[in-house]
């Protein structure tokens, strides 16, 4: 799985950090998401899928496989 | 088993329904029956609102997500097609500065990034011990006081106002003033002139405090906004507006989730038992999201106007037409949540839209979740015999405010 973050769209809601803290973080000053791991190991995939599903800005794209 | 089998049918799908739609008295926690029928029969349909205009009503979870992330769907409340909640909102729109609540990308993105800092998940989480202390102290006072008591005044209203006071950096000595004035501003039974006067006093208070924080900053939101004012990133007026907005937007909503949430859990003792007996913070966190979904308290929904024609679900929404997104309808959509009418604190609930969806999704959601996790994780454990001290049919529900709540919630133990 490859994770893509469309940063300009991000509204800094932090939902991805709640769902997959190993893969996403937020900048301290404005909350914009930081992608920590573009190729997360399979144990983290459920959390990443949840992050993509709940991201209110539809800013997270997953390329499965 | 379904909670709403006995809720009546309205026939709303037959005509041009008046919105908001009426809930059924015998099912006070369920969405209006008509809204559920519309979701099944006409998921994107026109309704008539208070000013005679006929915006679209969107009720399905999936359609709401599609439209609320569509850049042609706008929050511009100066557009004549905007479906205002009421006459007051229509009146104040032209005199309200452009804020996160009435702008679109890219301006919205820029403004929102200036106020997001304090709501970053990891920063909010640091407030947990302070919130725990506020909740513990209020419950101590409640247990020492009269029994039965109104849970609204004893706990539900003070929690969010004390938490926001702490977060903004309001000194402890002013907490009483802050709490009583913020309750008055929200009190729908208070005379409007009184509410205006108190709200003016609150703004003046925050403006003064902001000035102090600009010369002598601390580790709080007002100090941070003061820094941005000095750096020219926002004006002083915007900072004060934002402080008041945080107070107003987060007070009644969070309070309602404490009072109505407690009512919902008391009505479902098996679910309350799960919350009371768990040692796992993840179970509490999920229960909070499930109660948010189940109650979907923002009953006026999310309002938008369309800037270019949009084709969706076999209809064309024309430029200049308004849209109302009924959040309760989406959160009870069986395609998104099987057996949506059941309160089930263990179901996957995170995709609910009680905080809206899209770029305007609630700024304070992570703070609200944290407050509710502390309250739900503490109250029922410390007072295991908590019960309603009135019949549910005696409770008075607020059908007209932004949030659907109870005017008071008598509880005993
Ligand atoms: C359980 C409690 C809460 C609920 C159910 C709730 C619900 C909502 C909803 C549905 C929206 C979306 C409005 C729209 O899209 O037009 C919203 C936006 C907002 N909320 Fe909350 N809210 C809660 C708590 C809070 C708290 C604690 C704060 C602040 C400290 C807050 C501040 C805001 C602000 C500033 C916005 C506007 C965001 C924007 O337009 O970009 N809310 N809220
Ligand atoms: S969930 Fe989406 S909008 Fe929120 S911080 Fe993550 S990427 Fe940004």
Automatic annotation (TrEMBL), chain A:
Cofactor(s) essential for the protein: [3Fe-4S] cluster
Keyword Iron: yes
Alphabetized SUPFAM superfamilies for the sequence: 4Fe-4S ferredoxins
Functional summary from the UniProt entry: Ferredoxins are iron-sulfur proteins that transfer electrons in a wide variety of metabolic reactions.
Stored PANTHER family: FERREDOXIN
Keywords: 3Fe-4S, Electron transport, Iron, Iron-sulfur, Metal-binding, Transport
Organism of provenance: Streptomyces scopuliridis RB72
Domain 4Fe-4S ferredoxin-type: 1-29
GO MF annotation list: 3 iron, 4 sulfur cluster binding; electron transfer activity; iron ion binding
Protein name: Ferredoxin
UniProtKB/TrEMBL annotation, chain B:
Name of the featured protein: Cytochrome P450
Originating species: Streptomyces scopuliridis
Lineage, opening ranks: Bacteria, Bacillati, Actinomycetota, Actinomycetes, Kitasatosporales
């Amino acid at each position: 799985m490859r994770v893509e973050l469309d940063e300009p769209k991000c509204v800094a809601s932090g939902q991805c950090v709640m769902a997959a803290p190993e893969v996403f973080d937020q900048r301290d000053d404005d909350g914009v998401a930081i992608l920590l791991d573009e190729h997360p190991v399979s144990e983290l995939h459920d959390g990443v899928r949840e992050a993509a599903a709940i991201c209110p800005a539809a800013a997270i794209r997953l390329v499965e496989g | 088993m379904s909670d709403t089998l006995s809720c009546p049918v309205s026939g709303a799908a037959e005509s041009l329904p008046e919105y908001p739609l009426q809930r059924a008295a015998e099912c006070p926690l369920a969405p209006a029956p008509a809204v559920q029928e519309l979701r099944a029969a006409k998921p994107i349909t026109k309704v008539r609102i208070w000013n005679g205009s006929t915006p679209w009503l969107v009720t399905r979870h999936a359609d709401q997500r599609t439209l609320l992330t569509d850049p042609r769907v706008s929050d511009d409340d100066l557009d004549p097609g905007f479906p205002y909640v009421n006459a007051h909102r229509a009146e104040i729109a032209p005199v309200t500065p452009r804020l996160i609540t009435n702008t679109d990308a890219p301006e919205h993105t820029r403004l929102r990034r200036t106020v997001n800092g304090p709501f970053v998940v990891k920063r909010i989480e640091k407030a947990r011990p302070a919130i725990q202390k506020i909740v513990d102290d209020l419950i101590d006072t409640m247990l020492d006081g009269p029994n039965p008591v109104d849970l609204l005044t004893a706990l539900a209203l003070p929690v969010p106002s004390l938490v926001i006071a702490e977060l903004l950096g309001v000194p402890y000595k002013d907490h009483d003033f802050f709490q009583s004035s913020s309750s008055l501003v929200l009190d729908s039974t208070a005379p409007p002139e009184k509410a205006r006067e108190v709200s003016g006093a609150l703004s003046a208070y925050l403006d003064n405090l902001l000035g102090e924080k600009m010369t002598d900053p601390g580790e709080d939101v007002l100090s941070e906004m003061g820094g941005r004012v000095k750096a020219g990133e926002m004006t002083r007026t915007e900072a004060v507006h934002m402080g008041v907005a945080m107070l107003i937007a987060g007070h009644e909503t969070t309070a309602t989730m404490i009072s109505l949430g407690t009512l919902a859990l008391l009505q479902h003792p098996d679910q309350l038992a799960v919350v009371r007996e768990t040692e796992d913070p993840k179970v509490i966190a999920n229960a909070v999201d499930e109660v948010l979904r189940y109650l979907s308290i923002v009953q006026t929904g999310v309002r938008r106007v369309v800037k270019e024609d949009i084709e969706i679900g076999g209809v064309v929404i024309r430029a200049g037409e308004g849209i109302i997104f009924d959040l309760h309808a989406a959160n009870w959509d069986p395609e998104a949540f099987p057996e949506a009418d059941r309160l089930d604190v263990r179901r996957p609930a995170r995709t609910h839209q009680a905080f809206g969806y899209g770029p305007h999704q609630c700024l304070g959601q992570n703070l609200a979740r944290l407050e509710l996790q502390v309250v739900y994780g503490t109250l029922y454990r410390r007072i295991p015999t908590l019960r309603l001290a009135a019949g549910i049919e005696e409770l008075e529900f607020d059908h007209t405010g932004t949030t659907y709540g109870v005017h008071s919630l008598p509880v005993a133990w």
